[in-house]
Amino acid sequence: MSLRRDPQTDALFRSMLSLQSVEECYQYFEDLCTVKEVRDMGQRLHVAGLMREGSSYLAAQQATGASSATIGRVKRCLDYGAGGYSLILDRMKEGQADEA
Predict the structure, then answer these.
(1) Each residue of 57-75: pLDDT tens digit?
(2) In whole angstroms, what is the distance from residue 29 CA to residue 71 CA?
């Protein structure tokens, strides 16, 4: 599955790039998404981090409460996707190292 570029999606992504703090993200995403959508995205990111560290499906499910279908989808994206999870997880890890 590949996102197709279009002006609306480009504008959405540019809008996200303009956010300057976690607080701004909370404000924007509260308006943009439902609470469930934001929580689901956060859960997927958590699953991705666990799976990349070598957690089993069961361990990821117990840690996050994600369904086996969600865990399977995230794992497929890690293995065969566009590389977005890896990009972000690497940057988040670098950010933690910079803060230490």
Answers:
(1) 999 999 999 999 999 999 9
(2) 23
Domain chopping of the chain, boundaries = 7-99
| List of residues 6+ apart from 86 with CB closer than 8 A | 52, 78
**23-54 pLDDT per residue, tens:** 999 999 999 999 999 999 999 999 999 999 99
Give CA–CA dist 53/98, Å, rounded.
20
What DSSP designation does 53 have?
T
Residue keyed to tokens 């993200």: 25
CATH superfamily of 7-99: TrpR-like (1.10.1270.10)
